[in-house]
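Hey, can you fold this one?
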Amino acid sequence: MRIAKAGAVTAVLVLALTACGSTPGAGPVADASTASTPSASPSFSVSATAPSDDGLSPANLASELLGRLAEKGTFHVVSRTTTAGEGASVVTADLRIGGDHAGLIAIGGGRKLIKTGSAVYLKDATVTGDKTRPWSELAAGGQSSRPGRQLLRAAQVHALIGGAAHATTFQRGDRITVNGAPAQEYVVSIDLARATAAGAMDGYLTADTTSSLPEALTVRIAVGAHCLPVQLRFTLDDQTTGRADVTATFSRFGQKLTLTPPSPQKIASPATT
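Sure. Predicted structure:
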């Protein structure tokens, strides 16, 4: 009975993944992810175990997965970063991607961040110096505040998927379990110079943030039912900040999400600069 049950679960996963590669209108995701998937990509090598039965390939992995997220519209992220000597830090976020109402809510390190459209608000009394007005509207999309920038970046970790359009290697990995359900991992090595020059991972990695990183970034992308990304695993070997192991899991696809900016009475003025 156990063998039969396991086979049934595998069959369900295979059937779910078979639908990959057929998303109508799959393409770049706007705003919160700002990830693009240009048609031109570097030449790549495909391993002998590269998938041929589920429709995912180096040519469509990024657009397919980001397209599925865009169809769902909203999702939940738990991003755990482990740094040597500092332990683990966790950021939880809920995102709405695409359209005029895109944005996110993120919590981590005792701070809260709300992004609605292009406006970004950070709740951190150590920034404002006023416990009665702990919120600040971050100038230039939050780039002026290091804590705000770090929190926003961790919340938008899904943007790394866009870099798969610039992969130099592509391999089908293991079948794993994520959030209690089976998933198929794909291992891609992203050419960081090409990907960031194309803006493929904007929101998480941009051209001005990769000078201390290696030439390539290996990302393990787990795909679950309905061809949705359910987990990312990767290591950032940053010459400036050190080695960081990141695991991000995705869930609650398509659930209702309300994004409400803080009341003006709670916002310090002027904007953080």
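The chain has a mean pLDDT of 82. Let me know if you want another pass with a different chain boundary.
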